[in-house]
Write a structure and sequence with these properties.
The model has no long low-confidence stretch (mean pLDDT 96). By secondary structure, this protein is an alpha+beta fold. It has 2 domains: 93 residues, Phosphorylase Kinase, domain 1; 189 residues, Transferase(Phosphotransferase), domain 1 (Orthogonal Bundle), CATH 1.10.510.10. Strand 1 and strand 2 form a beta hairpin. It has a 5-stranded antiparallel sheet with strand order 1-2-3-5-4, sandwiched between helices. It has a 3-stranded antiparallel sheet with strand order 6-7-8. Helix 4 runs antiparallel to helix 6 and helix 6 crosses helix 9.
């Protein structure tokens, strides 16, 4: 095996002045045309992303990374993100890079592993699951109040901290309220795509932008909770099913019965999941209402 790819020197040079030096770097992922590193200095830690210049999708990924950098500025100006989240962004000889504040947490799938066990319904697990759901809804509510949709709510784009709070990351595909020029949104991870987005993808040309709205995020939240708690995707299909057929199944909103998929009974949590997976967007709760419902009295 060859050596792990190094982060862009242009990015590391700029970050040294912000997080202190010496710096240490650790490759976190290298897939689908993009790479991510953990960069630690004496004064802070950041997550650094850059496109893979040798990938067939290098140009698209570079454009997507530039778009995310712009989205983070706009979301910060709108009050939906803390000012310190976006650390820096720029060009390098292979494309584009973006650095954001490090979030010390693990993806939802890994965090939910104990809950997927048949004996996972111990007393401490129940408030923990509801707390994650509440803080996840709170993060989405901040976006929705500012007129944005995240548009890619899924298990790998939310990290769970040791305190049991959800932190949303990866805003590259987010849909804002002002109609500015952008890369066309054509859906994100298939398994958490809402029925209305699936239907719009099937009904429009590949270069047509689909404007994701907050209810699509709520479906993504419900689908992620269903999947990570039960171990089953909410809409059944085989892994090797063509994407167009997966989207057709999702557009029909025919989800697996939660009663048969759940590892143990948790009526309050199941009610939240079912509400989020309502077929009609207008029947789903808002993120604000969901967070309020789950806030301890």
């Amino acid at each position: 095996m060859g050596a792990a790819p190094s982060p862009p020197a242009e990015a590391v040079g700029l970050l040294k002045g912000r997080i202190g030096e010496p710096v240490t770097t650790r490759l976190l992922s290298d897939r689908r045309g993009s790479r991510a590193w953990r960069i630690e200095g004496t004064q802070g830690v950041v997550a650094l992303k850059a496109n893979d210049p040798d990938a067939e999708t290098a140009r698209d990924k570079a454009a997507e990374m530039a778009q995310e950098g712009d989205h983070l500025i706009r979301l910060t100006e709108a009050g939906a993100l803390s000012p310190g989240y976006r650390v820096g962004a720029g060009a390098w000889e292979g494309g584009r890079w973006l650095a954001v504040r490090w979030v010390d947490g693990i993806p939802v799938w890994g965090a939910f592993a104990p809950a997927r066990e048949p004996e996972g319904g111990r007393p401490s697990m129940r408030p923990w699951l509801l707390g994650i759901t509440r803080t996840w809804a709170e993060r989405l509510a901040q976006l929705h109040t500012a007129g944005w949709a995240h548009a890619d709510v899924q298990p790998t784009n939310t990290l769970i901290t040791q305190a049991g709070a959800a932190e949303v990351i990866d805003y590259a595909l987010a849909c804002g309220p002002d109609g500015r020029p952008r890369l066309p949104f054509r859906g994100a991870l298939t398994h958490t795509t809402s029925p209305e987005i699936a239907d719009a993808i099937l009904a429009t040309a590949a270069d047509t932008h689909i404007q994701a709205e907050p209810p699509a995020d709520i479906w993504g939240l419900g689908a992620s909770l269903f999947w990570c708690w039960t171990g089953h995707r909410p809409v059944p299909y085989d892994d090797d099913t063509p994407r167009v057929d997966k989207l057709k199944a999702i557009a029909r909103a025919a989800t697996l019965p939660l009663d048969g998929a759940r590892p143990w009974t948790f009526a309050e949590f199941e009610k939240v999941i079912r509400a989020c997976l309502a077929p009609a967007p207008e029947d789903r709760p808002s993120a604000t209402d969901l967070a309020a419902l789950l806030t301890p009295s």
